[in-house]
Write a structure and sequence with these properties.
- This protein is of the alpha+beta class and about 325 residues long.
- It has 2 domains: about 140 residues, PurM-like, N-terminal domain (60s Ribosomal Protein L30, Chain: A), CATH 3.30.1330.10; about 180 residues, Phosphoribosyl-aminoimidazole Synthetase, Chain A, domain 2.
- The protein is about 30% helix and about 25% strand.
- The chain has 10 helices and 14 strands.
- Strand 13 and strand 14 form a beta hairpin.
- Helix 2 runs parallel beside helix 3.
- The two termini are about 30 Å apart.
Length: about 325
């Protein structure tokens, strides 16, 4: 496609034709010439915003761009309502690439009950790969906002799904040829399918109803990074038990191939939740088909540790995610 704004005829057939209006609280939605969107909010509600970029060429980047931002909104106890999408494509990108990305975005929005509220599409020679920046907008009742830093000493820590969830799927997808040299094809296919578990919106809703004091989606830096961040934001100590952190065998075996620490591997789709009664929350999540486990608690002081039998690991701020090792 030529450099500059995406032509109106392409917008109409490859973008607007795929986007559907599904929420009555969205008042102004995408259209030719519409530079702003509008949504209705109740007098007892506050608006919550999150934004993150995604860069890539593979199928799935549209889905991931929606999930990571909706997850941030849900982690605050808010309901994701809609997204604004800024999409920049390189000149060599074909219209089919644009259509596929918008298809992924719209299908993911539909699965979450949210809406594409607006955005911008452009072709630029500044980028070599598609760049998607999504801003997600949510709303929550006043008093219902749950900060990452709401943890209190004595709160239990619940983790949903499995360590290294997103990273396992990415490695299995991008490095399948290497993995097939030592691992069964079925194991790799299962690992790729972990991409179907990237949303934390369902568990966030359950946790909010159960009185969660803090929630944090586990992204770059993995569960070790998330434990540090929730403790740092809350000003508390952390004590977690490595043996209680849920992890899939597929993740263990794939990480061994690349000498990766799975507990420091990006894990979008997993959530860390602080609450008064972790076992009760685990039961409620199980009723919704969401696996979870109590992995530790918040403590007095500032020490943040992970124990493994008699061994103790002291946590620090997250460094470069383990995922990047596969590109070296």
């Amino acid at each position: 496609m030529e450099i500059g704004k995406v032509p109106e005829n392409i917008l109409k057939r490859s973008v607007f034709k795929q986007i559907h209006h599904r929420r009555p609280d969205i008042l102004i939605y995408p259209g030719v010439g519409e530079d702003c969107c509008a949504m209705a909010a109740g007098s007892d509600e506050i608006m919550v915003f999150s934004t993150d970029p995604i860069t890539g060429t593979d199928k799935g980047i549209g889905r991931l761009a929606v999930h990571i931002n909706a997850n941030d909104i849900a982690s605050s106890g808010a309901e994701p309502v809609g997204i604004l999408v800024s999409l920049i494509l390189p000149p060599e990108a074909e219209e089919d690439t644009l259509r596929q990305i918008i298809k992924e975005i719209e299908e993911t929005c539909d699965s979450l009950g949210i809406e594409v509220m607006g955005g911008h599409t452009e072709v630029s020679d500044v980028v070599r790969r598609p760049v998607i920046n999504v801003t997600c907008i949510g709303k929550v009742k006043k008093g219902g906002f749950i900060p990452t830093g709401g943890l209190k000493a004595g709160d239990e820590l619940v983790m949903t799904k499995w360590a290294g969830l997103e990273g396992t799927s990415i490695i299995a997808s991008e490095k399948a040829d290497i993995l097939k040299q030592t691992l069964p094809a079925g194991l790799i296919e299962t690992a790729v399918s972990f991409k179907d578990y990237l949303s934390v919106v369902p568990e966030a809703a359950v946790a909010a109803c159960m009185g969660a004091t803090a929630m944090h989606d586990i992204t770059e830096g993995g569960i070790f990074g998330a434990l540090w961040e929730i403790g740092e934001a809350s000003g508390t100590g952390i004590m977690a038990d490595l043996r209680k952190i849920p992890i899939r065998q597929e993740t263990v075996e794939i990480c061994e191939v690349f000498d990766i620490n799975p507990y420091m591997l990006i894990s979008s789709g997993s959530m860390l939740i602080g609450c008064a009664n972790g076992n009760l929350l685990v039961e409620r999540l199980a009723e919704k088909g969401i696996p979870a486990a109590v992995i530790g608690r918040a403590t007095e002081g500032k020490g943040r540790i992970v124990v493994n039998g008699e061994d103790t690991r002291y946590l620090g701020p997250a460094v470069s995610d383990e995922l990047y090792k596969i590109y070296k």
